[in-house]
Amino acid sequence: LIYNERKQYATARQYLREAIRRNPDWAVPYNNMGTSYFYEKSYDQAADHYQKAAALAPQWARPHAWLGDIAYERKDFCAAQQEYQSALDLATPGMSNWNPQRIQSKRDGAAAKCSQASAADSSPRRIEFGAGGTTATVRGSTSGTDAYVIGAGAGQTMSVSLFAEAGNVTLQVLDANMNPLGATDREVSEWSGTLTYSGEYNIRVTATTVGTAAYTLRVTIPPLG
User: Fold this and answer.
1) CATH class of segment(s) 2-120
2) Which residues of the chain form CATH 1.25.40.10?
3) Among candidates 163, 146, 131, 150, which has minimal Cα distance to 221?
4) Tell me: the pLDDT tens digits for 142-188?
């Protein structure tokens, strides 16, 4: 803990690995290892260690609070809400360095953003091409997720590009059953491919910055032949 507080994370992990080697069933060093990775923004490694801590100590609230922080940083607000709620449910009176009001505030913030994302998912905006056009451009802004839907035919190619005008945004292209098409890493800003069926396709633009992000979305579908 001392080395984590001093931001000497690599040194902290050396001692924590030794603690884990000596007692692999003790949840605390896994949790502290996760914290060292969290502050370095290595969220995948942090999540792995927090999940291990939660598995070893299923009644311990703290790993769930950290998992909530990771989900929030990743803009997965619904998952963040669930983890914060788990932390609140598991918390015991007298826990050291624990502020239930702060966790409740985080939970409420995540819940609000989760609701925004759910509302966007339930009422997507349809993208239309002008007469004879093959490219549509949409400009928007969001602090959560904006949802779009577009119709196209099997065999057509579709190219989708996302340009951040202010803040940071990421792109996801999905089929009618909400299955992702191609790569959907958080850094993806464009997608292109040949469509396999005739019908509707879904596009999601998600803010990955604090506050509101502005963006331009461009979709091109040339005619067949």
Assistant:
1) mainly alpha
2) 2-120
3) 150
4) 888 889 999 999 999 999 999 999 888 888 898 998 888 865 444 56
